[in-house]
Design brief:
The complex is a heterodimer.
Chain A lengths: L3 E4 L2 E4 L5 E7 L8 E6 L6 E5 L3 E2 L7 E6 L2 E6 L9 E6 L11 E5 L1
Parallel strand pairs in A: 2-10
Antiparallel strand pairs in A: 1-3, 3-8, 4-5, 4-9, 5-6, 7-8, 9-10
Chain B lengths: L2 E5 L2 E3 L5 E8 L7 E7 L5 E7 L8 E3 L7 E6 L4 E6 L8 E8 L10 E2 L3 E5 L2
Parallel strand pairs in B: 2-11
Antiparallel strand pairs in B: 1-3, 3-8, 4-5, 4-9, 5-6, 7-8, 9-10, 9-11
Classes of the chains: A mainly beta, B mainly beta.
């Protein structure tokens, strides 16, 4: 089973700064079936990125995804106040669809 | 508008069973796979399992932590997915989310989520 490891655990940044979140897989993710989600307290997660780099419907272009194989990155170009949240990566394979443990982006 | 509404959560004793339902609207339910994801209090997301669309066999897959205890089913005529949970343990306490999923070759992550249903396993 593919294990996803996200880093850092917490990212302390100020509004306007750039956020770079990492997701590393224990084995190659085929077809780049890697997604990123945002979750705010008390809310269901929201899909941001799928296929490693495709933005989901309605997602602002300050969010971008990159990577392939085992190393993936979510970048938030310039943090808005509403972007402070927890972010999860997920691989959605043929039979198993695991999540990383999450990265919290907090206000510095 | 796509909507997913979970129901059936509540307090249940260890070892007992509970069935969650996910009522879907706003899309052609039968064309999609459906997944369940849970989140224990203060913890991260854990994928529970999914069921493929009938076009892909309607079969289901599960996380190791629930395999053999949980069963996902679907009724395409009613646009409902169910999560049958048996032999519940305290560690199954979580908010359970129903999500719209895609069959493998069209996969795009989980693009719609329900609001979640809280299950508490305690004596």
């Amino acid at each position: 089973e593919t294990v996803l490891t996200q880093s850092p655990g917490t990212l302390s940044l100020s509004p306007g700064e750039r956020a770079t979140l990492s997701c590393r897989a224990s084995q190659r993710i085929s077809s780049n079936y890697l997604a990123w989600y945002q979750q705010k307290p008390g809310q269901a997660p929201r899909l941001l990125i799928y296929g490693a780099s495709s933005r989901a419907t309605g997602i602002p272009d300050r969010f971008s995804g990159s990577g392939s194989g085992t190393d993936f990155t979510l970048t938030i170009r310039s943090l808005e106040p509403e972007d402070f949240a927890v972010y999860y990566c997920q691989q959605y394979g043929r039979s198993v669809k695991t999540f990383g443990q999450g990265t919290k982006v907090e206000i510095k | 508008e796509v909507q997913l509404v979970e129901s059936g959560g509540g307090l249940v004793q260890p070892g007992r069973s509970l069935r969650l339902s996910c009522s879907a609207s706003g899309f052609n339910f039968g064309e999609y796979a459906m997944s369940w994801v849970r989140q224990a209090p203060g913890k991260g997301l854990e994928w529970v399992g999914f069921i493929r669309s009938k076009d892909y066999g309607g079969t289901s897959e599960y996380a190791a932590s629930v395999r053999g205890r949980f069963t996902i089913s679907r009724d395409d005529s009613k646009s409902i997915a169910h999560l049958q949970m048996n032999s519940l343990k305290s560690e199954d306490t979580a908010v359970y989310y129903c999500t719209r999923d895609f069959d493998y070759y069209n996969s795009r992550g989980f693009d719609y989520w329900g609001q979640g249903s809280l299950v508490i396993v305690s004596s």
